[in-house]
Amino acid sequence: MELYFVRRAAQVRVCADGGANRVYDDMPLLFPNEDAAHVRRRFKPDVIKGDMDSVRSEVLNFYSDLGTDVVDESDDQDTTDLHKCIAYINGVMPNLDKSSFCILVTGALGGRFDHEAGNINVLHRFSTTRITLLSDDCLIYLLPKTHRHEIHVNFSAEGPHCGLVPMGMPSRRTTTTGLQWDLNDAEMRFGGLVSTSNIVKAEKVTVESDADLLWTISIKKF
């Protein structure tokens, strides 16, 4: 269902290779009383990009015939399909105000762990771009160490469970407000403390750290 709402609000809609299969298969399920082909035409992606090893031929042909731009980068095996898509979006929308620009990624979590790790790595490789990984259960985005972050929590749609995870390097000092178990110049690292299963207690959470952190918060199902 989140795929439907994200699709409606998006300015550009890019499928990472096999993600086109999911759009093709799942969108008609949201409109069981409508003709499946009509639904697929209405919700076609603007671009399909990747190494083309996952998308089914009938899906690729269907969207290509509708005018979807297919960008085959099978010659590049050093970056993930998500990386290719983020690079494409940054390239076609270079003049957007990055303070209000956000890329929402569905289907990035809940599958193979190496795929999930690769998708989280994309957050770090594009640390100046606001990217949110969205699943049925939670969302994840990067909090770069260069900023003091204010996170405004919408309790009608997210929370209360949350976490702060140091990725890439330990955090020697992390301080938060607005959580049930706030951190006060706390050290976090794998093999030591990691702030998981914390609880949001305020509509505004602040985070300040000397290392990049992943922020994750549960989302509510409707």
Automatic annotation (TrEMBL):
Pathway the protein acts in: Cofactor biosynthesis; thiamine diphosphate biosynthesis; thiamine diphosphate from thiamine: step 1/1
Organism: Linum tenue
Gene3D superfamilies in the cross-refs: Thiamin pyrophosphokinase, catalytic domain (3.40.50.10240), Thiamin pyrophosphokinase, thiamin-binding domain (2.60.120.320)
Record key words, sorted: ATP-binding, Kinase, Nucleotide-binding, Transferase
Principal place of residence: cytoplasm
One Gene Ontology CC term in the entry: cytosol
BP GO terms, sorted: thiamine diphosphate biosynthetic process; thiamine metabolic process
Transmembrane segments: none
GO MF entries: ATP binding; kinase activity; thiamine binding; thiamine diphosphokinase activity
Family: Belongs to the thiamine pyrophosphokinase family.
SMART domains noted in UniProt: TPK_B1_binding
EC assignment: 2.7.6.2
Subcellular location: Cytoplasm, Cytosol
Ranges of residues in domain Thiamin pyrophosphokinase thiamin-binding: 147-213
InterPro entries the record matches: Thi_PPkinase, Thiamin_pyrophosphokinase_euk, Thiamin_PyroPKinase_B1-bd, TPK_B1-bd_sf, TPK_catalytic, TPK_catalytic_sf
Keyword hit for Transferase: yes
Protein name (Swiss-Prot/TrEMBL): thiamine diphosphokinase
Coiled-coil portions: none
Its biological purpose: Catalyzes the phosphorylation of thiamine to thiamine pyrophosphate (TPP). TPP is an active cofactor for enzymes involved in glycolysis and energy production. Plant leaves require high levels of TPP for photosynthesis and carbohydrate metabolism.
